[in-house]
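Incident log, structure service

09:12 report received: a user says their structure output differs between two submissions of the same chain.
09:20 pulled the input from the user's history:
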Amino acid sequence: MIGKQMNANTKIDKDDRVQFSITELAEEFGVTSRTIRFYEDKGLVNPEREGTTRIYSRKDRGRLKIILRGRRLGFSLQDIKKMLDMYSPKGEPTGQLTFTLQKCEEQLEKLIAQRTDINEAISELEDGIAQLREHLASSDSAADGCKKTIA
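09:34 re-ran on a clean worker, output below:
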């Protein structure tokens, strides 16, 4: 931000930053600080410490982004950890990519099966609702006829 005047409304490009607080990351990703500490306890992120303050690096931020995406897609924390731990900037990524591809294909199969189940449940509910409405409509007509006969 050299040469720029900063104020309270100045947006900081997070990709240019090298350190983040737990509060900043929680706000950015829409999670609680407790969630981030949970991932830390599981060994998924490893912030530095200044006293009791956690200082997260760009690497931690990137890992957190991958963790949250993986959770949203339904991956287990164990699988996410393995995917992250297999990464090496110096090594050949074939093992990591192969494992990740396998897990993605497995998860896609699960989600497709779930979608089929959900579509069947929706269809059953729609049919049931239509039958209930039809029954109620015919009951109202029969009830109206009885009222006219009685009155």
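09:41 both user submissions now match this output. Likely a transient worker issue. Closing.
09:42 reviewer note: The chain has two domains: 12-85, 90-151. Residues 90-151 form one domain.
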